Structures are given as C-alpha cells and as structure tokens.
Amino acid sequence: MTNRFIAFINPRKGADVEGTIEEIESNMILNRSTIWILVCGALLASIGLDTSSAAVIIGAMLISPLMGPILGVGLSIGLYDSDVFRQAMQQLLLATVVSLATSVIYFSLTPLGQPTPELMARTHPTLLDVLIAFFGGVAGIVSGSRREKSNAIPGVAIATALMPPLCTAGYGLATLNFSIFLGSFYLYCINATFIALSTTLIVRLMNFPLREYVHEARRRRMLWAMSAVLVVMVVPSVYFLVSVYHQTRDRQIVQNVVIKPLQREDTEVLKWDIQSNDSVQLVRVYLSGAPISAAQIKQIERKLREEHLDNYRVAVSRVNMSKQEIAQLSQESARKLLESMQLQAELREPASLQTLAIGGGAATGLPPAQQVLREVQSLFPAVKGLRMGRLNGITADSTNHADTLATVAITWALPTDTVGKAATTRRLYSFLCTRLRQDSLELTTAPPSRLPRVTPLLPVRPRLPKS
C-alpha cells in the first residue's frame, strides 16, 4: 500500500526529462523578440501600478519572460552545470536591468506618479511571500516537466508576481524613495530565489541526470552557500511578517475596544484611523450623533492599557450629520468634509510631524518652501515660519493602504486670540490649497522644536501690522 502511494505521488512518473531540460535552456535565453516582450511587460506593469489597475498588472505578469532565466538558474544548480548557471545568471541580470530601467523611465515621465495602493502593497514582503514563491515554483517546474502540458504556468506567473515588484522598485528609484525601492526589490529577490530553489529541489527529486561530477567537498560548499542565501532572504521577511501581525492585532483591538463601543444607537462612526505621533499612537475617530464625554474617552483609554496598548490615545471629532446624509453627498464633497474635520482637529491639538516624508520641491510635486513662505508672509504677516512636505499614512478606512497628503506646518509670529486665529487659519488654508494646487491639504501648527528638519526655515523678520 505504501509503495503504491509513493509511486502515485512520484513526480518523475509521466515526466519528460530531456524535453524539460531542453525547453528551460531554450527559454532562458533572451533574444531580440523576448527583449521587446520584456520591455512591453515592464511598461504594462508600470501603467497598471500607476493607475492601480489589477487587470493590467495581471496581463503584465502573463507576458513577462522573467521566469525563463530564473528556472534556468534553478535547473543548472540541480544539474551541477556551471556553464548553464553562468549563462542563466547573465540572462537574469540582463532581464532585471532592462525591466528596472524601463520602469524608471516610465515613472520619470508619467504625469501621475503617486504612490497608489498597488504600489504600496509590494513594499513590505513577509514570510507568506516566501511560501507563495516556493510553492508557486514547485507547481511551475512540476507542470512544465509533464509530457501533457497543463494550464498551471499562467497561474504560477500570476501567483509569483515577478514583474510588478521589479517595476515598483523602478518607481522607488525614479522618485528617489529608497524605502520603496528596497522593499519592492527585496520582494523581487525573494520570488526569484525561491522559484529557483524549488526548481532545484524538484530537479534533484526527479533524478535529472547530472552534467558534471561534483566532489563531496564542493557539494558541501554549495550547500552552505545556498543555505546562507536562504537565511539572508528569509530573516527580513520574518521580521516584516511579525510587524504586520502586530499592526493587524493592534487594529483589531482598537476596533473592539474603541470603535464598537462608539457604534451606538445615538452615534455613528464615520471614519477612523491611527496616526503615529512620536511614541504615541493617536486613534482619531470622526462620528455623528450624541457627544462623547471626556470620562468616556478616559475609560476607553484605560481599556486600551488593559490590552497592553499603553501608548495609544483617543481623539474624537463630532459632526452633526448622519452617515446616510454623508452617503447622499458626492464622493468629492464627503472627502472634503472629512478632511476639513481632520484640519479642525489638528488645529485644536497640534500633532508632531515626525512622519513628514520630505520637504517641498520637485520630489514632492510642491513648490520650494522658501518661495511659498514669502508669498504667505506678504498676505499673513503673523506667520513666522513654514515647512511643507507629504505626510504618509493617512487612511480612509480600516485597511492598511497608505496614502500621501500635502502637509504644511505653520509657526506663528505672535500669539493671537482664538477667534482671530481661527478666521486667519481658514483664509490661510484656502490660499495654500489654491497656491499649491491641492484639493485638500493638512495644515498644522507646532512649535519650531517639533518640526522635522527637512526644509530650512527662511530667516525673515516677521512683519507686524502697522498701527
């Protein structure tokens, strides 16, 4: 019975060994036509990532010829063929450089170029991506070795996703965002490494004939080298997986401890998010209906501490409008309403801007901060200093999709009364939206010591109103 089961699951049964070797070695060579297909695949993937179109990204995965050199690397290691290994590595390096260069050129020229959810989804690979790449590679080599070809190869190309993370890395280079580049290129390396590894393991399991005799000492050195590469690939992904797990767990606790108790008959939660302010995680909740007392907020924060979320604080903003009424508004009006609420909350409680990505300039699509400061001071003499950039992490729902928002931090020259400052701030907000060509932005007030050093303040003596 055991022998029958082993014979049934033996992948060598029904395999075309010679045909598989010949097919992989022929497909790993990039000729003139495959280079053109590679460039088109990179352009399609870049367009899909830029417009957040999953259908276009899937199409780019299917036509991309990146799988050929990677399978060639895995096959050559399994056959102990050093000549084929060098050739496959050269072809893989060529394909990687061509794809990366194509995406860099596209994202340098595109009029869009914003970090879409499809882009950001490929910047934090985890251990799950390692498993996807490995089992996808196993399915690919087993399917490709059959005499009767199946339709598993397109599925493998979609599951392992080689081209999208490589084009995301190109976006990181084009925008000089090296955190995006490193995260997405690491995902590409994970996929390539574990597809090659699974190919090597299946080749050895199916007893493909060796091309060269390998001495036992050299075989041990190769095994140690492969183990070192795998450790380098896996360890960061474990760290990312633990980070994602903690973020997901914390959001679930916030959902249960903060959001659900606020969802009562007389209140509705319209929007909520978690913002990092130095060492404090601020849970911002926007709701309609009955007001929430300070005692209730303290009780919620006490429950968060009981769940070991000691650095979490809760800030509630209330608007006299129901969720159904907001749903009747246009999407644009609703978005501006919620962002206006957030602006008011920020002005009541200045937030630290340690997450401010970079200062104004071509990299952010914003004009130089010094120029904007001069224009602001000509209209608003009470403004002493101004910094601006793009603030990461503003989310519209309970997902982890990141967004970017133009952010302006103002330092006032003189203290003003509450009413006068509020009116001035509203006019300043409208002016900055028009000047920076933004539908909305984040306007904050903070002392100079709390502002990140991203753009030097212009040393201009504030001009006071004439008496």
Number of helices: 17
Detail the poorly predicted runs: 346-361, 393-403, 448-467
Molecular shape: elongated
- Counting DSSP E segments of at least 2 residues, the number of strands comes to 7
Tell me the Rg in angstroms. Answer: 28 Å
Distance between the termini: 102 Å
Mean pLDDT: 77
Going by helix content, strand content and strand pairing, the class is alpha/beta
Helix and strand succession? HHHHHHHHHHHHEEHEHHEHEEHE
| Tally of structural domains | 2
Strand content: 5-15%
Largest sheet: 4 strands, mixed
Share in helix: 55-70%
Strand order of the largest sheet: 4-5-6-7
Describe this structure in words.
- Helix content is 59%, strand content 12%.
- The strands form two sheets. It has a four-stranded mixed sheet. A three-stranded mixed sheet has the order 1-2-3, with helices on both faces.
- The protein has 17 helices and seven strands.
- It is elongated and about 80 Å long.
- It folds into two domains: 2-214; 342-467, GMP Synthetase, Chain A, domain 3 (2-Layer Sandwich), CATH 3.30.300.
- The longest helix is centred in the middle third of the chain and has 47 residues, at 216-262.
- With 467 residues, the protein is an alpha/beta fold.
- Mean pLDDT is 77; it is low at 346-361, 393-403 and 448-467.
Key traits:
467 residues, alpha/beta, GMP Synthetase, Chain A, domain 3, four-stranded mixed beta sheet, three-stranded mixed beta sheet, elongated, disordered C terminus
Write the layout of secondary structure elements.
Layout: H1 2-9, H2 17-27, H3 32-51, H4 54-63, H5 67-79, H6 82-109, H7 117-120, H8 127-144, H9 152-160, H10 163-174, H11 178-205, H12 216-262, E1 267-277, E2 280-289, H13 294-306, E3 312-319, H14 323-328, H15 331-348, E4 356-359, H16 369-379, E5 383-392, E6 404-412, H17 418-435, E7 442-445
Parallel strand pairs: 2-3, 6-7
Antiparallel strand pairs: 1-2, 4-5, 5-6
Helix pairs in contact: 2-5, 3-4, 3-6, 3-10, 5-6, 5-11, 6-10, 8-9, 8-11, 8-12, 10-11, 11-12, 12-13
